[in-house]
Design brief:
With 392 residues, the protein is mainly alpha-helical. The protein has a single domain (3-391), classed as Glycosyltransferase (Alpha/alpha barrel). Helix content is 57%, strand content 5%. It has a two-stranded antiparallel sheet. A two-stranded antiparallel sheet has the order 3-4. It has a two-stranded antiparallel sheet with strand order 5-6. Helix 3 (31-43) packs antiparallel against helix 4 (51-64), helix 3 (31-43) packs parallel to helix 5 and helix 7 (141-158) runs antiparallel to helix 8. InterPro entries: Terpenoid_cyclase/PrenylTrfase. This is Squalene cyclase C-terminal domain-containing protein.
Amino acid sequence: MNNGYRKILEILEKSSVTIFKEDNQLFKEKAAFTALLLQGLVHSPNKQNFIKIIKNLVSNLLNLQDPIYGFFIEKHSNYSEPSALVSALTGIALIDSMNFVDESTKKKVLSSLNRIKKFLIKQEINKGSYRKSLGFNYSIVNSNASITLFMILYYKITKKEAILTKVNDFINTLRNFTLNDGAITYGIYGQKYFIPSIYYHALTLNHLIRINLLIDSKKLNTYVHIYLKWIKLGYNSKGIKWEKSGFLFSTYLNQAYAFILAIKHIFRLDEKDNLSKIFRKNIFNGCLFRCDTVPGIIKRIKIGIHVGIKSSLSIKFKFINLLLFISYSLSLRFNIRTKPRVYKKNPIFKYFGIHSGVSPPINNRLDYMTTIESFCYLAIAFDLSTENALKL
């Protein structure tokens, strides 16, 4: 492990544990926070120091599951709905933690996993594609990848061959989400957006890498390396090339650095680009700002226009779309700050009645979710890189 990566992992691990201790109620109410912290701790190089916390988190997750239908709730400021994505992430965390709990708890976990599996199967829209949540009836590739990772991990426990069919069905859908240059497209709200997102590309690739280590699939292995080639072109010595993205609401989100660093660590890619140092500049008192530091004014204008055009062209083209998306994109770029601010609905979108997403990146702040999720994926990559990377 290079020194920069190790230092970031140590800082975010300490902060994530501190967040748990100081805001314990959060981890009794929100499954996503709890599942991500649990995954991070069980994969941490210091995992043996966190046995008590791990057991506590497992207990919290078991209490958060719907006892009848098996789902977990995804909570945002704009909605709170049963979620296939959060249910899958929770299932993954519970499976990863099974070696840390007693036999009685392990039986409860197995029962929970079975209910999660049944719920997820009912969310399948087409072969290999699942609705993200009941509140948003659409299918996106990163959510499908999370669900498929749960399925393959569950198969390793139960050896039920029918589950493998679900995994292969998902692999066959990847061609629908892959652009000619190797980028993973992001589709939302029931439409196909032929648009790349560095954030979601890197997140999805992290899940695919882990699936690839658990299943013998030449097709998936080929996709992993296609996606790896694209992401390697998405950063340089100045940081992430955000202009390669076209999805407004994931541009500048700091977790993208963690997702890319995790990939680089697994594949043992060199650190000449200094991505670790750049990422660390976004950490303040151990906690991550939600958004990447915004470059100079010319760079802001360039990226804002570029991303706005990409976003507008991803749907059925209308000139008004072009103006709206460029205006909103520029608004996002110029309103990101390194100090907390209260988010107010963008006036352009408010005037035209356009919903601006559940988690608008205009509000930059020191953020628990950004910190914990980044720690989670960096810790998982640490575990995977110890010996499994030799299989990739």
